[in-house]
C-alpha cells in the first residue's frame, strides 16, 4: 500500500479502482482483465504527466516521502559485505550518520550517509537523520581511514540539516561541520556524493564537497529548508511553496547553476515506487563516476575537487 502525497490524489483513486477490479471474480474475468489493462495504461500516462511537471514544492514533498529508499535500503540493495564502523573516538556514537566498509560491484569502498529511519522507533533512534558533532567527526575518521587504505569514499546525503540542539552546539557543531568539509576537500582518494532525498544546509555539505556530486531526479539540495526560509523572510511557514520556488533547490535548477554534476533518473512515480530499481540506478551512476577517476593520482583528485568548488562560486557570481 502506497503512502500518497496531496497532489497524487487522482493517482490514488485510479490505483484504488484497479485494486478493486483485481479482487473481483466471476464469469466476466476476461472483461475485467481488459478493463484492468486499460486502467493500467491510463495510470501510466497519469504518472508521466504528473511527475513530468512537478513544482519545486512538490519535488520537496517527494524528496521527503516516507517510503523513499534511505541509507539502509541502499546498503541492502546495492552494497555487499557492509561492515559498520562506529564512534568518533572522542565522545560517542551518532546513529544519524552510518558508515563503514563495503563492496560496490566488486570494488572496495567506504560508504557514509545519513539515515532518517522509516518508522517512529527508527526515526527516534537515528534522530531523523540530523547529526550531532560526533556524527561528523565519525565521518572525518572514516574518510581518513579510506584515504589511508587508498579506497574511494561514497557519501549518501539525506538530512533536513544538522541537529540544532544546545548539546550539539556545546560540543562544537559548527567546528565539526567545518572540519568535515575540510576533510572532504583534502583527502586524496575519489569522493562521490549522491543526494538521495533532502540535502539540507551545512548538515549536507559536510559530506558533499566531492569530486562528483549527483542528485536523484526528485531530491532537493538547499542552504535552508523552504519552511525555514519562509519563517525568516515572510514570518510565516505558509509561504514554504514560494520559498521552494525562490531557493532553486531542485536537481534540474542546480545542474543548470553548476552546483551538481549530473541527475540520476528515478523510476516512474518516484524512487518510493521501485526502491530496488532506484538503488541500481544510483549504483550505475556511482560506478560511472568512479571509473572516470580510475587513473587519477591522489594529488590531482584533491586539486580538481578544490578547484571545482572555487569555480562554482565564480559561476554563481556571474
Keywords:
50% helix, 2-enoyl-CoA Hydratase, Chain A, domain 1, 8-stranded mixed beta sheet, alpha/beta, 318 residues
- Principal-axes geometry comes out as globular
Main pleated sheet: 8 strands, mixed
CATH topology of the largest domain: 2-enoyl-CoA Hydratase, Chain A, domain 1
Poorly predicted tracts of residues: none
Radius of gyration: 21 Å
What is the CATH class name of the largest domain? Alpha Beta
- End-to-end Cα distance, whole Å, is 48 Å
Estimate nothing, just give the exact number of structural domains. Answer: 2
Verbal overview:
This protein has helices at residues 9-22, 29-51, 56-63, 71-78, 120-125, 133-149, 166-170, 173-186, 201-205, 226-233, 240-247, 251-257, 275-291, 298-317, and strands at residues 80-84, 97-104, 107-114, 153-159, 191-200, 212-216, 220-222, 262-264. The protein has 318 residues and is an alpha/beta fold. The protein has two domains: 6-53; 58-317, 2-enoyl-CoA Hydratase, Chain A, domain 1. Strands 1, 2, 3, 4, 5, 6, 7 and 8 form an eight-stranded mixed sheet that branches. α9 links the parallel β5 and β6. It starts with 8 loop residues before the first helix and ends with a helix.
